[in-house]
């Protein structure tokens, strides 16, 4: 009986290992998907409410809460913005992914209709601000569509920027946008989970070195746009890991639990493993009982 038990245990181990490798081949993200921050923009806490002397809302009037892609979102008028002080927990020196759902109301005639900007400020004046990592929209000759651009500033190759070859951002429609910097493959831009062709307009496509640490983050500066669910991750995410749908990650992250977008499949695999373990246990028990009867 003992030898059969060992055999069945080995069979169970093989099944579990096989399931793990199957999960990896299917691209199931880990529970820790690299999310550093995810802003839902469902409510606004003013400095008076939180007792903080640093206002996170810029402009008068400030950004407004409106209906978003999922729940509420923040609407920007081209003059206001959201400011977030930077912290070391938001720092991604190597791989980084920025993503958000956006609804463009109009294009402002400036090069950078900012979605999200990680910046470094060396003084009090705005002229001392340097873009470190970010994603923005640029108007095009087509009044109904704009270009998407993304950039990083590294300690070796300095400022590097890419822009879509075609105007891909429409007016009056929700679209998911993402910028990814991978230390192995370089910079990439995605629209609704599909990678789009880009041109390098400054620096190189795959810059060397570490991304500089910023001092602050801005949302919606110089942009007439509604922004929902912006996320910063310290990983070069694949499209299957973007927040393209109202996934379990969005739901669970509202309770500050970080889960992957394929949680259901992961749970199914674990359930199969436990079911196999239970079945093998019953086989062992049944074999033991029948052996005693034979004796």
Please explain how this structure is put together.
The protein is α+β, with helices and mostly antiparallel strands and 295 residues long. It folds into 2 domains: 2-23 and 264-294; 32-258, Jelly Rolls (Sandwich). Helices cover 22% and strands 36% of the residues. It has helices at 2-25, 47-50, 248-253, 263-294; strands spanning 35-38, 57-58, 64-67, 72-75, 81-85, 96-106, 113-121, 129-139, 145-154, 158-164, 169-170, 174-182, 186-191, 194-195, 198-202, 216-219, 224-233. α1 (2-25) runs antiparallel to α4 (263-294). The chain is globular.
Keywords:
295 residues, alpha+beta, Jelly Rolls, 2 domains, nine-stranded antiparallel beta sheet, eight-stranded antiparallel beta sheet, 4 helices, 36% strand, globular
Give a brief rundown of this model.
With 295 residues, the protein is of the alpha+beta class. 22% of the residues lie in helices and 36% in strands. The chain has helices at 2-25, 47-50, 248-253, 263-294, and strands spanning 35-38, 57-58, 64-67, 72-75, 81-85, 96-106, 113-121, 129-139, 145-154, 158-164, 169-170, 174-182, 186-191, 194-195, 198-202, 216-219, 224-233.
């Amino acid at each position: 009986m003992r030898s059969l038990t060992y055999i069945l245990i080995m069979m169970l181990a093989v099944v579990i290992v096989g399931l793990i490798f199957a999960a990896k081949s299917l691209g199931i993200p880990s529970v820790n998907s690299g999310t550093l921050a995810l802003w839902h923009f469902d409510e606004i806490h003013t400095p008076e409410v939180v007792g903080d002397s640093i206002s996170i809302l810029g402009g008068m009037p400030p950004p407004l809460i409106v209906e978003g892609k999922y729940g509420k979102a923040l609407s920007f008028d081209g003059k206001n913005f959201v400011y977030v002080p930077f912290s070391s927990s938001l720092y991604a020196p190597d791989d980084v992914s920025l993503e958000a759902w956006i609804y463009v109301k109009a294009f402002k005639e400036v090069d950078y209709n900012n979605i999200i900007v990680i910046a470094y400020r060396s003084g009090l004046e705005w002229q001392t601000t340097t873009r470190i990592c970010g994603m923005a929209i640029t108007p095009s000759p087509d009044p109904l569509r704009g270009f998407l651009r993304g950039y990083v500033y590294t300690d070796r190759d300095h400022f590097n920027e890419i822009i879509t070859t075609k105007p891909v951002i429409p007016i009056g429609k929700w679209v998911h946008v993402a910028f990814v910097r991978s230390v192995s493959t370089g910079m990439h831009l995605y629209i609704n989970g599909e990678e789009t062709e880009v041109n390098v307009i400054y620096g190189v496509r795959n810059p060397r070195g570490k991304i500089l640490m910023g001092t602050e983050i801005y949302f919606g500066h110089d942009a007439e746009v509604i922004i929902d669910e912006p996320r910063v991750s310290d990983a070069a995410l694949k499209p299957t890991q973007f927040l393209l749908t109202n996934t379990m990650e969005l739901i669970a992250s509202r309770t500050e639990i970080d889960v992957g977008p394929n949680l259901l499949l992961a749970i199914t695999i674990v359930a199969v493993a436990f079911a196999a373990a239970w079945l093998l246990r019953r086989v062992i028990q049944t074999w033991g009982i029948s052996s005693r009867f034979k004796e």
